[in-house]
Structures are given as C-alpha cells and as structure tokens.
Design brief:
By secondary structure, this protein is of the alpha/beta class. It has helices spanning 17-31, 45-48, 68-77, 97-102, 119-122, 125-131, 135-160, 170-180, 226-235, 251-263, 278-287, 302-309, 322-326, 341-353, 356-359, 361-367, 373-388, and strands spanning 4-12, 35-43, 58-60, 91-94, 110-114, 164-167, 185-186, 214-217, 243-246, 270-274, 290-292, 314-317, 333-336.
Length: 390
C-alpha cells in the first residue's frame, strides 16, 4: 500500500500562514503519489471546508467532550487519542511544540517544520509579556514562569527525536540551529500558484478600490505592529494616497488602531477590509502601488512573498528578518531603517514617486520565482525522500 503521511497541528480555528502551509505541503505529498491526512486537536468544520483544503482528508482527534486545549493537554500527559488514527508505517509531520510532545510515544518516522521557537519559552521576559496579549498566551506566560526550565528540556529533547527538520527561512535557521544543536533544512513556505495570475482594474470592483493605494495584510493583532505603519502613514509627504489593510482582526487591536489613526488625523484615509478570499487578495495585491511589512523581524512573511508574485514591490524593516531576506534593496523594494517610522514614511513616498512598481516590474516578478510552488515542491519532496528511503 502507498505510504501515508499525517500532518499534525494543535488547532484549526483560523486560516493563517501555517494552515495554508500545511495544505500546500499536503498537496505536494499527494502530487508525489503518497496518501495524506491532516489532523487537528480542535477543528472548526466551516474552516475545514475552506477552498485551500479542497481534496484533502482532515480529521479532528480526541474526545468530543473536550476542547482542543483539553485534547492537547491529554496528549501531553499521556492520554493519547491518536493511537486510533496513526498506523506504524505512517510518517508524521509536526508543526508545533505541543504536537511534538503528543507524538512522543510513537516510533514512526518523524519530521518537524519549525516556523519559530515556542515564544512562551524563549522570548526575553519583557518581550514574552508583550507577546501574551490574550488569555491563552497569558496562561502560557505564567506556565513558563513556573515550569519553563523543565519544558525547555522537553522541547529540545523532542525536537532532537525528529528524523528531519525544516525551517521557513535562513533567518529562522540562524536562530534555531544553535538553540537546538541541529542543521535544519531551509524550505520557504511556497506561494500558491493563484498569486501568479495577475489582474487589472477592469476585472475587479467589489471593494471599489482607488487606482493607487498602499497595502498591508495579515491578522490584525499586536504582533503585526500595524501601529508603526499607521504612524509612518501619518508622516508621509503624499497625503492623497490611502492605506488599505486586509485581514481578520482582534477587536481590541482594531479599536486601538482606529483610535491611533483618529489621533493622528488619518482615519479618513485608512480602509480595513476584514477577511478577503484568496482570489480577492490576488486582485488587491495586483492593483496596489506598494506593499508594506511593519512586523518586527518576521520569521518569514508569506504575504510579502505573495505580493512580489503579484508584481507589487515591498518595503520592510532592515532588521535581517525573514521579510528582509526576501527584499533585494532597490531591486524589488526598499529597506527602511529599523523601526524608525519617519524613514518608513520616506521609503513609501520614494517608492510611489519613482513609480517603482512600473519601472522594476520584471525584477519584482523574477525575485518571486524562488517562492513558487514548483521550486519549493522539489526541495520539500527531495528532502523527505532521503529520509523515508533510509
């Protein structure tokens, strides 16, 4: 029987970069002729029916009487519902620290995809508290104060148990290789081929977008630092061009950003679109004048790679993060002095004034090729074949 891969993650309660990455990895494996299943400790049925999971087998594991957190906790303390799903010949791919612990009693071939280290364990204490901006994170924060040292040992122990470890950028590899004493394989999250189909204004009317605008996207949460973007936007010389932001939002953060925009006198030029579909997102990237990444040291930044694939230049902080890694200064965008909002404003103005998107179109599209599904599929599957053929 054809070999089966099981892709494992704690929750399917939103469609973010990691969930999209799992779907693409699953399709890579199916294309290579393998059977594939995705499992989640908690699974929102509506999200499971999302277009990105089309043709894939998804399953929620554990007792129906427990929440996702309860199921993960049961796995960590030893009550493991996965024995009814996982077969001895399955290859397991984990996408999180809790799943590493939950899978510890299985002797299967194991692979891990590391986006970053567990923030609740390794961030400096002040940064960890700033990161703990919701109830779940606060619980993790206080847990780390009590049992952090022991949990770090477990984390390192079970990362080491994997037969293959992927990381999402060279930036991440530089951080995690010395932390875990590993030599991880760098495999960029691939950009869905949908983003290589570019559109013009005549094909898109839903949001009644202006002919020129600055764009940013991703979940509207404190980590993304949209506050820095709004501060930079208020300092720009160009006072006509609007700012468009797309993505699901945390209401508290959304309210804070609106209040900041009002205080800075720019609220009437900022448009929050909320959730948009993949097809809609392609249109919005394609029509944008420039895409801006305000997040500090993004581990990779799939949205910026998607923007490049749609022919839109990007502006990022010059902080050696994953998004900075994608940006070739003056070729497909600009680097702004790290966290200086006046310089970010200057670079956005510069990009607009120079008509950078038009004059550097070919360079922008060429720089996106290494993030394509075709390119990353070869890397991902070739590395996996080395492991399972041993």
């Amino acid at each position: 029987m054809t070999k089966r891969f099981i892709l494992c993650y704690d929750f399917l309660i939103e469609i973010g970069g990691l969930e999209r990455l799992m779907a693409v990895h699953a399709k890579f494996l199916k294309n290579a002729g393998y059977r594939v299943k995705l499992i989640f400790g908690e699974m929102n049925r509506e999200l499971a029916a999302n277009e990105i999971f089309s043709g894939l087998d998804l399953e929620e594991f554990g007792s129906k009487y427990l929440s996702g957190a309860g199921k993960i906790l049961c796995g960590i303390i030893g009550k493991n519902y996965l024995k009814n799903i996982i077969q001895p010949d399955d290859t397991l791919i984990s996408y999180s620290f809790p799943m590493n612990i939950t899978l510890r009693n299985f002797n299967n071939t194991k692979i891990q995809y590391l986006n970053h280290f567990p923030n609740f364990l390794y961030l400096p204490i002040r940064e960890r508290w700033a990161w703990a901006n919701n109830t779940k994170r606060k619980i993790a924060f206080f847990y780390s104060l009590l049992l952090g040292s022991m949990t770090k040992k477990l984390d390192k122990k079970y990362v080491d148990k994997n037969d293959l470890i992927f990381v999402n950028s060279n930036f991440t590899k530089k951080k995690l290789d010395p932390l875990y004493n590993i030599d991880a394989v760098m495999s960029y999250p691939p950009v869905n081929n949908t983003f290589s189909r570019r559109y013009d204004e005549s094909t898109y009317e839903k949001f009644e977008l202006p002919s020129r605008y600055i764009f940013a996207s991703g979940r509207i949460i404190p980590d993304k630092r949209y506050d820095l973007l709004i501060e930079a936007f208020a300092k720009m010389e160009n006072k006509q061009i609007p700012l468009v932001i797309a993505g699901n939002y945390d209401k508290n953060e959304y309210d804070k950003l609106n209040k900041l925009a009002e205080n800075l006198g720019v609220a009437n030029r900022i448009y929050f679109l909320g959730f948009v579909t993949t097809e809609e997102l392609v249109h919005i990237y394609s029509l944008a004048t420039v895409y801006v990444v305000p997040t500090k040291q993004e581990d990779f930044g799939l949205c910026s790679a998607e923007s490049l694939s749609c022919g839109c230049p990007i502006i990022v902080w010059d902080d050696d993060g994953g998004s900075c890694e994608q940006t070739i200064n003056k070729v497909n965008g600009y680097h702004a002095i790290s966290y200086i909002t006046s310089d970010l404003a200057r670079m956005i103005d510069k990009c607009i004034k120079e008509e950078f998107k038009i004059t550097h179109r070919e360079e922008i599209l060429d720089s996106a090729k290494k993030f394509s599904e075709e390119h990353q599929e070869k890397i991902f599957i070739n590395e996996i074949k080395k492991v399972i053929s041993c």
